[in-house]
Design brief:
With 395 residues, this protein is of the alpha/beta class. The protein folds into two domains: 11-73, no CATH class; 74-393, TIM Barrel (Alpha-Beta Barrel), CATH 3.20.20.70. The chain contains 14 helices and twelve strands. It has helices at 11-15, 33-41, 48-56, 60-75, 116-125, 146-159, 170-180, 184-194, 209-215, 222-234, 251-268, 294-307, 318-329, 360-369, and strands at residues 78-82, 84-87, 133-136, 164-167, 198-199, 238-245, 271-278, 313-314, 336-339, 373-376, 384-386, 391-393. The strands form four sheets. A four-stranded parallel β-sheet has the order 5-6-7-8. Strands 9-1-10 form a three-stranded parallel β-sheet, covered by helices on one side. Helix 6 packs parallel to helix 8 and helix 12 packs across helix 13 (318-329). The radius of gyration is 20 Å and the shape is globular.
Length: 395
């Protein structure tokens, strides 16, 4: 089975799955949505102007209805999650992004850098036979060489050979390549040899240069982020993609970001999921800005599902939007709640009040109470079947 065929849904099967609601007649009081609805029903691609209309419409329920229609056409009632553990090896970072509450400068008393043994122990402290993924991201440390991260991955694979390692954002990859005086391709090949299996989607923020120059001017620009992802996809890595919203961007910036992701996905097919990330201003240089509202959060999920017609999955990241809003998002286009996480640091440093982890049972309850069917997956969206003391991944 090819990667493109490996998604956890079969549209013909889904169409006959009990519990998959049949659509009633679409209704809206916003005439701008009527031609968009016609495109959605005909499975035609939406334009930039359509995206602006979706963001600007006051009829958010109609926007959500359309997104839910697409979501159910693709996945029925299935909602995916995994059992994962986050590892953040260091918060020391050469960047000084205004959006960030996690990073610390070298020498800051609040900075930390794990030794290899500490990182491996952190993995072990949250590990059980249930864990199928380690999610590894951190700061851009000025002194840690590429070899440190290669040794980190080698050590994890040696200790936990069955666990999928999803590690390092495009920003981290580009930084490590520069420090090692290697190309991005050479760096990725070394990381793959060490045991990196896929990559997360962080660091994308907003691609618009105007916005990026203010919120994260020390990071690679949007085009370099896309080029790094392109290289990873060409080498066979699957990755995710994110968008940070709710700060100084406008609707046009959001649409531009989504369409650039869609264009790259047309080219490579390497993205698995889109993850909209709500900006948490607390403890950042932008703490004068208000936090996002629930309405903004669910609209972003819906617009992402409608514009990103070639992305198989849309995640409602419960850590950032709260479990309650994430539940609602399952009716606004989202088909994935991410995972158990275990000890998330980055968004909690920015004031997130959500738990730092959730049990498998709790995730299943959230999904079931939203009227959906929980499906445990691995990182590559293969179904996971569990017995009392083991699990099997369908490939």
């Amino acid at each position: 089975m090819s990667a493109a065929e490996g998604f956890l849904y079969d549209r013909d099967m889904q169409a006959s799955t009990p519990g998959v609601e049949r659509a009633s007649a679409f209704r809206t009081y916003d005439p701008r949505l009527e031609p968009i609805a016609a495109k959605v029903f005909a499975q035609e691609r939406l334009s930039a102007d359509d995206g602006l209309a979706l963001y600007g419409s006051r009829d958010v329920l109609a926007v959500g209805w359309l997104a839910n229609h697409v979501r159910e056409r693709m996945h029925g009632d299935f909602t995916y999650f995994n059992v994962n553990r986050h590892i953040n090896p260091t918060n020391v970072c050469v960047a000084a992004c205004k959006l960030c509450a996690f990073g610390r400068k070298k020498g800051d008393p609040a900075g930390y850098t794990m030794t290899l043994e500490e990182a491996w122990q952190t993995a072990a402290s949250g590990y059980s036979e249930a864990v199928t993924e380690f999610h590894i991201v951190g700061g851009l440390h000025p002194d840690l060489p590429l070899e440190f991260f290669l040794d980190l991955i080698y050590g994890l694979k040696e200790r936990f050979p069955k666990v999928h390692i999803k590690a390092f954002t495009m920003v981290e990859i580009a930084f490590l390549a520069r420090r090692a005086k290697l190309s991005v391709e050479e760096t990725l090949l070394k990381l793959r040899e060490a045991g990196v299996d896929s990559m997360p989607g962080g660091g994308a923020e907003i691609f618009a240069p105007r916005v990026r120059s203010i919120i994260c001017d020390h990071k690679i620009d949007g085009e370099e982020w896309l080029q790094t992802a392109r290289t990873a996809h060409i080498l066979g890595f699957k990755t995710n993609a994110t968008m940070l919203y709710g700060h100084i961007e406008n609707d046009a910036d959001r649409v531009d970001h989504l369409l650039k992701l869609r264009a790259l996905q047309d080219e490579t097919g390497g993205f698995q999921a889109f993850i909209p990330l709500a900006f948490h201003p607390e403890n950042t240089a932008l703490d004068h800005l208000p936090a996002t509202t629930g309405l903004t959060d669910i609209r972003q999920i819906a617009v992402g599902r409608l514009l990103l017609d070639n992305f198989p999955h849309i995640k409602a990241y419960w850590q950032m939007m709260t479990p309650k809003i994430a539940q609602i998002a399952l009716r606004f286009g989202a088909d994935d709640l991410d995972g158990t996480v275990i000890e998330e640091k980055i968004y909690h440093d920015a004031g997130a009040k959500t738990p730092q982890g959730m049990t498998r049972k709790e995730l299943c309850r959230l999904i079931t109470e939203a009227g959906r069917v929980p499906v445990e997956r691995d990182t590559l969206y293969h179904a996971v079947t569990r017995t009392e003391d083991s699990f099997t991944v369908a490939v």
